[in-house]
Write a structure and sequence with these properties.
Layout lengths: L18 E5 L2 E2 L5 E5 L2 E5 L7 E10 L2 E11 L25 H18 L23 E6 L5 E4 L6 E3 L8 H8 L8 E6 L6 E6 L5 E6 L3 E5 L2 E5 L9 H15 L7 E4 L7 H8 L2 E5 L4 H11 L6 E5 L2 H4 L3 H4 L5 E4 L8 H10 L3 E6 L2 H14 L1 E9 L9 E8 L2
Parallel strand pairs: 4-6, 15-16, 15-18, 16-17, 18-19
Antiparallel strand pairs: 1-5, 2-3, 3-4, 5-6, 7-8, 7-10, 8-9, 10-11, 11-12, 13-14, 19-21, 20-21
Helix pairs in contact: 1-9
């Protein structure tokens, strides 16, 4: 669908500034509603199927255009008032005008559509999206802009202009309080983080160039998931929704079907979020990770969980680590991969196929790259059993998914 590259589109000189009235028929995977005008497919943010809207086209490409929503002429029956007064202005949320059950249905459909369109799966085995225990107040990590009047804000959609906010309904109160208690100047940003299921807080102030100029709080933040305490660097990666992250771990283990005595490999392992739960069942799990701040915490987390003897961690890019002799020549009963949004690099995917593991679990934060990689895995040696979306990002178009694959006979 041409609407996927929303952030990469740029204004065109032939864009028509006059208002148009559109009848909207569907939601794209981007969360934008779709209508048609002048032979174009038109994508409209913050609108819903079944609505009649007045819009202004802001740019176009061959066959499609994007528009700014000016007015809802006739609202859909399911439209709700957003929880945030800044919705549509700050650029952070896409779906607050949609009831939460409908958001889950949209994300299920978005994953299914990408598997059909990009992956070529005629009947994708996609399960209903698992909900977040908290549809609001779930974020443990937020970057705030500091506005000209030195209030907290977020950058507006499609630009670098800071929009002042009173509150952010998807941000945890602990994070809001931390940011409000930190002094900063206009043009700076605040990177605030708090452990919501564990403990620890940290806030970094950055200048306009992104350099850290002040820090406060703890040297580590902790979240407790699946009965394990995970410490991580305040500037490192960890899931922003720890409540739904626990569901993600459960679904990954369900897909992996680990058994005592097996050997598990966790690629892009971070601080051991999947490695440790796998090791607790199998008795042996190896994690591969490039990010230098993550592995010391992974080893620390394993030690504090009593799993040091059951885990082994290797530093380096996946494309290199997967070809190390101890990985290449090892026998792996189950491999779990959790790559960044861009998905698996072709060299990493080739190396994974060469390992010939009986089970493979793919955790993804981008249905499009997931579909692309699943298509290649299935074309080579695997059968796709099911895909389980998990809503780690309520009120937004983003969705996590866990794909379960087994070696085809």
């Amino acid at each position: 669908m041409p609407g996927i590259a929303r952030d990469n589109a740029s204004p065109m000189t032939d864009a028509r500034p006059h208002p148009l009235t559109l009848d909207l028929t569907a939601l794209a995977p981007t969360g934008e509603a779709i209508g048609r005008a002048e032979g174009l497919v038109v994508f409209v943010p913050y609108a819903l199927p079944g609505e009649r809207v007045e819009v202004e086209i802001v740019f176009r490409r061959k066959g499609f255009a994007r528009a700014r929503l000016l007015r809802v002429v006739q609202a859909a029956a399911e439209r709700v008032s957003p929880a945030c007064p800044h919705f549509t202005r700050c650029g952070g949320c896409d779906l607050q005008h949609l009831p939460y059950p409908a958001q889950l249905a949209f994300k299920t459909g978005a994953v299914r559509e990408q598997l059909r369109r990009i992956g070529g799966f005629a009947e994708p085995p996609v399960q209903p999206c698992a909900p977040s225990p908290r549809p609001l107040r779930y974020r443990n990590h937020v970057q705030f802009a500091v506005t000209e009047d030195r209030t907290l804000g977020f950058f507006a959609a499609g630009g670098r202009r800071a929009v002042s906010i009173d509150d952010c309904p998807i941000t945890a109160p602990e994070v809001m309080a931390l940011a409000r208690g930190t002094r900063a100047r206009a043009g700076e940003t605040l990177d605030a983080r708090a452990g919501l299921t564990g403990h620890g807080v940290a806030c970094h102030t950055r200048d306009a160039r992104g350099a850290v100029i002040a820090s406060s709080g703890d040297g580590a933040v902790h979240e407790r998931l699946a009965g394990i305490d995970f410490a991580f660097h305040p500037e490192g990666f960890f899931q922003v929704n720890p409540f739904a992250a626990a569901t993600l771990i459960d679904e990954a283990l369900r897909a992996a079907q680990p058994q005592p005595g097996q050997r598990a490999l966790d690629v892009y392992c971070g601080v051991g979020t999947f490695t440790l739960p796998l090791a607790r069942v199998t008795g042996h799990a190896t994690g591969l990770e490039l990010e230098g701040r993550a592995l010391p915490f992974a080893r620390r987390n394993a030690e504090e969980a009593g799993l040091s003897a059951a885990t082994h961690f290797i530093s380096g890019p996946a494309t290199v680590s997967l070809r190390r002799p101890e990985i290449r020549d090892g026998h792996w009963d189950v491999i779990l991969v959790d790559p960044p949004r861009a998905g698996l690099e072709p060299e990493a995917l080739d190396a994974l196929l060469a390992l010939e593991a009986p089970r493979l679990v793919y955790v993804s934060c981008d249905p499009a790259t997931l579909a692309r990689d699943l298509a290649r895995l299935v074309a080579n040696r695997y059968a796709l059993e099911h895909v389980q979306p998990v809503d780690l990002f309520p009120q937004t178009r983003h969705v996590e998914a866990v794909a379960s694959l087994r070696a085809a006979k």
